[in-house]
Amino acid sequence: MNIPENLQYTAEHLWVRPDENGHWLAGITDHAQDLLGDIVYVEAPKPGTRLSAGQPCGLVESVKTGSDLHAPLDGTVTAINEALQITPEEINDRPYDAWIFSFEPEHAPTGLLSAAEYRALLG
């Protein structure tokens, strides 16, 4: 299983990383996409949506099931990856390139997991 060292993670199987504009990108992990199977639909939170850490903010659906996206941190959504509306299967092919939404954190990020901590969570 692929767990890049340069990303941070949540217990709800999201990865996050800062982008060059000071916002953060969020997507689902390789583990999550593997459990879901073939992804057919992504409902990302709309730009301007207020995020509350740990609360549902979107949805990923596969041929097997649907899974809520949980906000990684408090903040505000700044953009969504429009390409995933047309080709959601990109998440299966490249989970760490296929970001779902970007957001501006309300405060300095805390409570995120390192790659080693996420790996330990998975067992």
Topology:
Elements: E1 8-9, E2 14-18, E3 24-28, H1 30-36, E4 39-43, E5 50-51, E6 56-62, E7 66-70, E8 75-80, H2 83-86, H3 90-93, E9 101-105, H4 115-122
Antiparallel strand pairs: 1-2, 2-3, 3-9, 4-6, 5-8, 6-7, 8-9
The CATH homologous superfamily is called RNA polymerase II/Efflux pump adaptor protein, barrel-sandwich hybrid domain
Q: In total, how many beta strands?
A: 9
Integer average pLDDT: 96
Helix content: 10-25%
Strand content: 25-35%
Helix-strand pattern: EEEHEEEEEHHEH
**So what's the overall shape?**
globular
The N- to C-terminal Cα distance equals 12 Å
Question: Would you summarize the structure shown here?
Answer:
This protein is α+β, with helices and mostly antiparallel strands and 123 residues long. The protein has helices at 30-36, 83-86, 90-93, 115-122; strands at residues 8-9, 14-18, 24-28, 39-43, 50-51, 56-62, 66-70, 75-80, 101-105.
Can you tell me about this structure?
This protein is of the alpha+beta class and 123 residues long. The chain has one domain: Beta Barrel (OB fold (Dihydrolipoamide Acetyltransferase, E2P)), CATH 2.40.50. It has helices at residues 30-36, 83-86, 90-93, 115-122, and strands at residues 8-9, 14-18, 24-28, 39-43, 50-51, 56-62, 66-70, 75-80, 101-105. 19% of the residues lie in helices and 34% in strands. The strands form two sheets. The chain has a six-stranded antiparallel beta sheet with strand order 1-2-3-9-8-5. Strands 4-6-7 form a three-stranded antiparallel beta sheet.
Task: Name some characteristics of this structure.
six-stranded antiparallel beta sheet; alpha+beta; 4 helices
